Amino acid sequence: MRGAKIPDVTNTQLSALTATTNYVSISVGGNDAGFADVITACALPAWASNCDGKINTAQAYISNTLPGALGTLYASIRSKAPNAKVVVVGYPRIFMGEDCSALTWFSPAEQTRLNQTADQLNARLAAAAAARGFSFANPTSRFIGHAVCDSPAWLTNLSVPVGESFHPNVAGHSGGYTPAVSGLLTGAAVTADAALLAKAATQAEALAQTQRQYAEADRSIEPEEFVLPDLTTPAARKAARKAGVDLDAFLAQR
Predict the structure, then answer these.
(1) Which three-class secondary structure state does DSSP give residue 171?
(2) Those residues with Cβ within 8 angstroms of residue 134's Cβ, 6 or more apart along the chain or in another chain
(3) CA dist., res. 198 & res. 103, Å (int)
(4) pLDDT tens per residue, range 98-142
């Protein structure tokens, strides 16, 4: 479930695991560190946000709190699925140094720090996975040249619906995640070609039927999502006045 945090996985998803489970893949931790809130803050102009402060808070959480939470979660996974091959999936670097949207204001320095935070998160995930004997799929290298604003991009920029923003798109899943994760799960990297997609389509209903028993629990999860910058609010206008910014002229430039 996109947007889930570690408690969501613990409370709504671990019940799917049994002693007969063969494979488990899991990607969680970014929302626990507040990635959605951080990106939302950093998308604002510097005078309207505290991007560095948000990043500092996220990095402190990743270093000091997340490892313990991951250790507890991974122990639960192993307890419920003692025979499963488990792959922990990391996070790509989202940015490539340019902001190509007229509605966001990510500076190059902010993008660098956000990418460094993704690297920090991956390091913690990899360490926690290794401590439990799980594999770690690091997507970083596969997404180089495919960040937001790259061509082709494997990560969505500001999109509609807004909640889809800054997540892997279809090409990101097929070209980035699928070969990285499948090789660690089964020992052979899978290419999402036409034949595989056709095979998946024939199995879709059966898989959907299996998943429906967990759908209600998944719907109870309140996802953490990016929020579109809004410079028309009283708070934004107050920040502009404090910074000596002519907000109307600033907006007209975009």
Answers:
(1) helix
(2) 74, 86, 87, 88
(3) 38
(4) 999 989 999 999 999 999 999 999 999 999 999 999 999 999 999
